[in-house]
Structures are given as structure tokens and as C-alpha cells.
Specification:
mainly alpha, Arc Repressor Mutant, subunit A, 10 helices, 74% helix, 0% strand, elongated
Length: 179
């Protein structure tokens, strides 16, 4: 760019003290639309990696963007478009928990901590159609094989392990006692 062109452009621009209210509001609108685009882009980037609950996505976006109303507005748009779904997240989380041999209470607690409603949790669990005692038997075989508990200390250790995994005591005793 030559110096003459630069000077011509410089003279053509308005000085900062001559900006009208329309210029300022246009600038604010363009910043708001840019922020909305940035929030949406970040949210889609996070959703592309894995499914997120609404609450989880909101928390992550709040760390990057301070405009809370804009974050909530963009998340609602994504939910309305079907790009973010708590129901889909719950179904995926239940299936993931089952592949890790987690019990019902552990799966439910994880979903609750990520802001999933009780009705969506129940719906996802019912749709999974799991026999929890059979799931626990498979975990027991995988972890301990066919070896029975040698003493009370070993039995207590196994009980603690199964409880940590989210299984109720009634199912644990049924599996350990061979019922």
C-alpha cells in the first residue's frame, strides 16, 4: 500500500469522538454475534469429542466465556436443534457404565452429579434392560474367577469392592453365597 492511499483512507475514517450512537450499537451487535459464534463453536467442538449433559457443557463454557446469559442462550439453541440432548447423554452413560461393570447406584449417582433428571435416569436404565445380578456374577468371575472366599477377610474385601462398583448388598450376598 502506498503512502498516498494510506493517507486517503485515514482521512476517510471518522475520528473516535465523532462516532454516532448507531456506529456504537452496530459495533456492540457485531461483538455479541461474534461472541455467540465463539460460544457455539466451542460447544460444538466439545460435543464432537463426546456427549455432554447440559449442566456439564454449561460449566465448561462458563470457564471460557463470562457472559452467562449468552452461554445459556446458545446452549438452549443447541438443545433445540438436537445437537445436545440429556436423554442421549443418559443412554450413552448407562451403556458405558455397563461395559465397565458398574452397578445401578454408581451409574445413577454419576448421572445425577451431571445434572440429569430422575425421570431421564429411570428411562435410560429401563431401556437398558439389565439383569443386575447376572452383571455382578460376570464381574465376580472376571475379577476373582471361580475361587470361593477363603475367609471372612476375603469376603469383606469382595463386598467392599462390589459396593464401590455400585451393587446393592442383597445382590452381592446372592452372588457370593452362590444363590
Amino acid at each position: 500500500m502506498e503512502a498516498d492511499e494510506f493517507l486517503a483512507r485515514l482521512k476517510a475514517t471518522k475520528p473516535a469522538d465523532e462516532l454516532s450512537l448507531d456506529d456504537v450499537s452496530l459495533n456492540e451487535k457485531s461483538q455479541a454475534s461474534r461472541l455467540a459464534r465463539d460460544i457455539r463453536s466451542k460447544a460444538i467442538s466439545l460435543l464432537a469429542r463426546r456427549e455432554h449433559s447440559f449442566q456439564e457443557l454449561e460449566s465448561k463454557l462458563r470457564r471460557s466465556f463470562s457472559d452467562e446469559p449468552m452461554v445459556l442462550e446458545q446452549l438452549q439453541v443447541l438443545a433445540d436443534e438436537g445437537l445436545q440432548s440429556d436423554q442421549r447423554y443418559a443412554e450413552i452413560a448407562v451403556r458405558s457404565g455397563l461395559t465397565k461393570f458398574h452397578g445401578l447406584s454408581r451409574i445413577k449417582n454419576q448421572l445425577r452429579s451431571n445434572g440429569i433428571s430422575a425421570s431421564l435416569i429411570e428411562q435410560a436404565v429401563v431401556e437398558a434392560d439389565v439383569n443386575w445380578v447376572e452383571q455382578l456374577q460376570q464381574l465376580s468371575l472376571r475379577k476373582y474367577g471361580d475361587t470361593p472366599c477363603e475367609d471372612m477377610k476375603e469376603k469383606a474385601k469382595r463386598i467392599r469392592f462390589f459396593q464401590y462398583r455400585g451393587y446393592p448388598l442383597s445382590d452381592i450376598y446372592a452372588v457370593l453365597d452362590g444363590r
